[in-house]
Amino acid sequence: MARPNERHLQNPGLRGGGRSSPRAAGALPTPNHIEYFVDGDGGRPNPALIAGSEELAKQISGMPPSQLRRFYGEVASIARQDEMSAEAILTHMALMKAKVAYTLGRRTKEDDFPDAFVQFVFDHAASVQNWTGFQEFRRIFEAVVAFHRFYGKNE
Fold it and tell me: Which letter does DSSP use for residue 33 in this model?
């Protein structure tokens, strides 16, 4: 019989009180770079990103609205502050990425915390480099929340 602390070696799908997770440990998504602006320097926002928020909302429709609002609330709280340095923004985005990874590690069903949402946060965490980019990320996230209200399940 295995010792209790060796249980994870026998069944790598089990962790955290016996909950199973479809994602293997350490399998975080590879971020994709996002261009927030058509002209590259913060002048004209990329309209395709807002348009893509509807498709993302459909993909994450099984995610509880409270879970989505929890992450959006953090973004909105940061956005209400005065303009921040690039270093402060990078720190906030890294922390959001860490919180998403933590929640992913705790999930029990893919619908509750969809891979598409995890990819969304990882992509934006890698792409936001300054206050202007962060404000554009907030607008995109706001659109996702709005579309999710229409396509998502009710609590």
Answer: -
